[in-house]
Structure formats: C-alpha cells, structure tokens
Amino acid sequence: MRQSRNNEMLVVDGKLVGVNLGADYCAEHEWGIKGIRSTFGIDVTKVGVDQRKISKTTDRLVWLDKILFNPKNKKEKTKWSGFYLKKYLDDDHYFDGYPYSTDLYTQWDEGGFCAVASSDEKIAQLKQIYEAFAKNDIVIWLGGGGPFQNAGLAIAIASHLPQEVVDGWHQHDIEHNKLMADFLATGIKEKLEKAGKRYFALSPRRQEDGSLIFWLNPMEQKIHNSGWFKLEELEQWARNEGPIIMKEPKKR
C-alpha cells in the first residue's frame, strides 16, 4: 500500500533537482512523515530551506541493485537500482509487486521510502540524490510548490534548488508562522475546549482584508455543519448558538 503514483524526476532548466515519490489515496500517505523527519534530524521549527533540510543521515539508508523477473513472463528480467530507507536495520522489504509500465518505481510512508529505476538515466539521477545524503545536502518535504506542482513526498538536493523555491519557502513559512500566532491569539481553541466542542480539524486562513476565517470539520456531524466560519461564529458555537449548529439535525 506504500506504492505511489504521479512520481517524477524533478528537473529544472535541464538540471536535476530531485525526485517526487508521488502519492496515492491510501492511509500510509495520510500519516505525514514524522518518522522520516526524526530519522534525518529535520528541525521543523525553522523556516525556509532549513525547515526541510536534513542534519544527519543513517545506515538504514541503502543503495539497492535488484533483479526482478516479470511474473507474466518468467524469462524476462530487469535490473532495478535506487535508494531505500529501511524502517529497521533488519528490514529487507524492498518493494512489492512488479513495475510493469514505468521505469521509475516509488513507495513511502511515515517512516520509510524507496525510489528505484530501470533506465540508465534515472538510475544515475537517483545515484546523485543518494550521494547527496552523505553530505547532508538534502531537503525533504510533502506537497508541491513553485515549479514542483505534484503532491507527494519530495526529496531534493538542497544546493540544486532554484532560488525562486528557496525564496518562496522562506516567505511562506514567515506568513504561516504569523498566521498561526494570530490564530492562537484569538483564544478560540481554549474557548471551544472549555465549552466541550470537539472537532476533527480547525484550520485558519487569512483573507484579503487580513482577517481570519476558519475551516471547521466538527465531530457529531448529525447536528453540526462543517465549512468556513468567522471567529464570531465559532464563539457562537461555544455558546450553543449560530450557524454551525444544524437547524434540523440529520436523521439516521
């Protein structure tokens, strides 16, 4: 279930930047990458490149050379090479299945990843990325951004990043930190907690006029609406008032 789709080598102006391992609609890709960040000493309290850059490597990261036989044609075999982050030192799980229609095959979850290729060009590109781990010249992040639009787990050579990405990350993180500080300053989380209001998600967004609006995904959705709400509407919910409470609860 760790297999990814929409994977791709990240190349900008003919220069290798990294690899996007892609993503799929599976639980393994919903858990985040906390384990990977811990393994490589990534400090998420920093901003910009430093928030995504590794500070150490591990002997659980290995290079693979593996011969696979096509299960539909036992005489057909292909050599696959690339890098693999084991979850444990004795983990020998490389990848599942057989990559029929691609020369780049990837898997990842919260604590490990695998990127292997069968073409000489992509194997050489993966080798560059693998060697950059030893120099701590690697950034790891989730999602697209800048020239990297496809979602997924991305691994790139830090020194190869386009300047627009470096600048964009820095600006994004500064704005995000300010957004979260303003969110906490409203005190709405404490008010809702005190009122016994529970939710799956409460996420702020800044509007064009600078004010905050909040995405709420509440629990007890037979009696509560989800959606974007203003601060005063969340405060009304804490008082059992306002538009979050359904006028007519859903029937079973």
Q: How large, in whole angstroms, is the Cα Rg?
A: 22 Å
Discrete helix count: 5
Query: What level of helicity do the residues show?
Result: 10-25%
Biggest sheet layout: 4 strands, antiparallel
How many discrete structural domains? 2
Task: Sum this structure up briefly.
The protein has helices at 34-39, 120-133, 163-185, 188-194, 231-238, and strands at residues 8-12, 15-20, 61-70, 73-85, 104-108, 113-117, 138-142, 153-157, 199-206, 212-218, 227-230. The strands form three sheets. It has a four-stranded antiparallel sheet with strand order 1-2-8-7, covered by helices on one side.
What this model shows, in words?
- The protein is an alpha+beta fold and 252 residues long.
- It folds into two domains: 8-164, no CATH class; 186-238, no CATH class.
- It has helices at residues 34-39, 120-133, 163-185, 188-194, 231-238, and strands at residues 8-12, 15-20, 61-70, 73-85, 104-108, 113-117, 138-142, 153-157, 199-206, 212-218, 227-230.
- The strands form three sheets. It has a four-stranded antiparallel sheet, with helices on one face. The chain has a four-stranded antiparallel sheet with strand order 3-4-6-5, covered by helices on one side. Strands 9-10-11 form a three-stranded antiparallel sheet.
Write the layout of secondary structure elements.
Elements: E1 8-12, E2 15-20, H1 34-39, E3 61-70, E4 73-85, E5 104-108, E6 113-117, H2 120-133, E7 138-142, E8 153-157, H3 163-185, H4 188-194, E9 199-206, E10 212-218, E11 227-230, H5 231-238
Antiparallel strand pairs: 1-2, 2-8, 3-4, 4-6, 5-6, 7-8, 9-10, 10-11
Helix pairs in contact: 4-5
